[in-house]
Amino acid sequence: MKIDFQRFIAAKRGHNDRQQGESATLETPLWLDSKDALRRARHIRDPEQRRHTINIINDGYTVLRNLPSAAWCDRVVEDYYKYCAEEHAEARGKKSRIANFHIYSEAARTLLLDPQLMALLDVLFGYEAVLWTSLTFEYGTEQRLHRDSPHFDTRPPGFYFGVWTALEDIAAESGPLSFLPRGHRVPSEFDVKGMAKFLCSEYPDEPVNYNYLLEAFDRDCEQQCEKAGLKPQSVELKKGEKLIWHHWMPHGGSRALNPELTRRSIVGHYIPMGVPVFHSDVFFGVVEADLAKSYQYESHAMRKYVWFSRAGFQTPATRYNVSTARK
Question: In total, how many domains does the chain have?
Fold first, then answer.
């Protein structure tokens, strides 16, 4: 029997039109990670949604092309430089990445809540998708390959997708997005909870060194994927095109061969409606997840996003790709 996912999603969305999100009742694990995922995916009626879903099940990512979003990209870039001028970004030395730029820019909200994208995310989650947070970049990050799970630790686990949108044609020399196809199926051998407990017991008076834990977790990811014979790849993206990745997909920034070239992009982080998101302290088992956590939602173009008070510059911890980053 064929599954009409759009009718299923419409039924789910019918009782969730509220400002404060309630805990979602979800099939766990994420249905894409179930043993019969491919069989179920083949019953998706829409051929494009079916193709993208199968791509993510098999490879951990998919690319959306031919979306009517190029004009919105130009407006997002205009808003970016307007925001930088208003915030005196050059003088503060923080003209790098902006967290939750969609709170400031209506164009960014429109781009991140694209109807085709959101309809596909509904199918991938099996539940109404919402935009949680975003990051906007002017240049490539050269960030080492990593998994997002410690930073977007949902309850239930694994209910998260990242979506990278090119705001301009991305040149190979600018340090395009890098990822490990099929890396989402490589398990970790790192004892996530055990290492944190060890540090807490050995150094009870010291703050937990999350950078150390993240480095060890990322290093294990690289080693296990290398054992599996996986090689980093990148894909050529034109302005307005989007790449969606599975929450366990290792990804990062490749080396910028020409550091003067921009690599303007915006990343959206998506979750199902009502699902709480936690960070490294919960992921590594240092603190318990507060399952009563909830969000306030706003709407744009008939889709929801989590409300934050404002956008702001964000300076991430330096975790560059040690094998490729320029010195």
Answer: 1
**Chain length of the chain:** 327
Contacts of 286 (CB under 8 A, 6+ apart): 196, 200, 208
- The answer to whether residue 208 sits within a structural domain is no
Model pLDDT, residue 233: 96
**Residue 251 three-state SS:** strand
- Backbone φ/ψ region at 21: left (φ over 0), alpha (ψ -120 to 50), beta: beta
Does residue 256 form part of some domain?
A: yes
**Which helix (H) or strand (E) segment is 212 a member of?**
helix 210-227
Contact by Cβ (8 Å): 175, 254: yes
What is the band of 12 on the pLDDT scale with cuts at 50, 70, 90?
Answer: low
Indicate whether 15 pLDDT > 50.
no
Q: Which residues contact 324 (CB under 8 A, 6 or more apart)?
A: 142, 254, 255
Place of tokens 């990445």: 97
Q: How far is CA 209 from the centre of its chain?
A: 24
Domain that holds residue 73: 5-185+234-314
Helices (H), 87-182: 89-92, 106-112, 115-125
Name residue 211's amino acid. Answer: N
Give the contacts of 293 (CB within 8 A, at least 6 positions apart). 276, 278
In angstroms, rounded to a whole number, what is the distance separating the alpha carbons of residues 213 and 219?
Answer: 10
d(CA 312, CA 103): 10
246 and 123 in contact (C-beta within 8 Å)? no
- Do residues 272 and 128 lie in contact, with contact meaning Cβ atoms separated by under 8 Å? yes
